[in-house]
Write a structure and sequence with these properties.
The chain has three helices and 14 strands. By secondary structure, the protein is of the alpha+beta class. α1 packs across α2 (41-53).
Length: 238
């Protein structure tokens, strides 16, 4: 019959074998993940970025870059810089995106963004191209690693940790004049709004004048002709 020491040793060996088997399983999973990362780095980075940003992106304004093209001229409208929408025109029609404000027209402080990460360049009669400038963390469009690609409307772009949607405006349409009925309604609405603003202004002025009158009437004066117990008392002004 086995004694207590033998049972303890046997139990310990089983525990060690179980831990060793678990360690082997974890090692296999790590090796599988490493192989996936080597062959599909862009896709896994995209998944990890979405996972990390999912808790903070709710309620935030979606980042975007919109390209406007008209024959020989193109320009961008974007909210990437401090979240403010700005129209950007550039003589060479090339907009550099990166961390360095001296060399990047669209400067963003992101640790995964290179100093000069990528550029968006407009080529007349073709469109806007995204060009990677040898960045460390690469450029991706719709999850695919790119060096240079013609951007299309709705493309999802990621540079480092900076992700945005690219929109493309290719044409301008001139609309018909407003119907007379709509013009009349707008005129009535504007006249009513101006009348209301005028009435409010008059009311505020009247209240202000009344307040000034009350303040002047309520200012006490010193009565120098009456004394009580050696102290000057306040008297009513005439």
């Amino acid at each position: 019959m086995a004694n207590r020491n033998e049972l303890a040793a046997y139990t310990s060996s089983l525990v060690n074998m179980s831990e060793y088997a678990e360690l082997q399983e974890r090692l296999k999973l790590y090796q599988v993940f490493q192989k996936l990362y080597e062959h599909h780095r862009g896709l896994l980075d995209e998944i990890l970025d979405l996972e990390n940003s999912s808790s903070t992106s709710v309620g935030m304004t979606s980042a975007y870059v919109q390209g406007f093209m008209s024959d020989e001229q193109g320009y961008l409208v974007t909210n990437l810089m401090q979240g403010k929408t700005q129209a950007l025109m550039q003589p060479q029609q090339t907009w550099v995106i990166g961390r360095d404000p001296r060399r990047s027209f669209i400067s963003i402080q992101d640790i995964r963004l290179s100093r000069c990460h990528a550029a968006i360049r407009y080529v007349p009669h073709q469109g806007f191209y995204l060009i990677d400038l040898g960045s460390r963390n690469h450029s991706f469009v719709n999850g695919e690693l790119v060096r240079q690609v013609l951007l299309r409307d709705g493309d999802q772009v990621r540079l480092g940790s900076v992700a945005f949607t690219f929109f493309l405006c290719q044409s301008t349409k001139t609309l018909e004049p407003l119907p007379a009925e709509v013009v009349t309604r707008l005129a009535h609405h504007q006249a009513a709004a101006q009348a209301t603003a005028s009435e409010v202004g008059i009311a505020v002025q009247v209240v202000s004048e009344q307040a000034e009158d009350v303040e002047e009437d309520s200012i006490p004066t010193l009565d120098l002709y009456h004394e009580t117990s050696g102290f000057l008392r306040l008297g009513d002004s005439e």
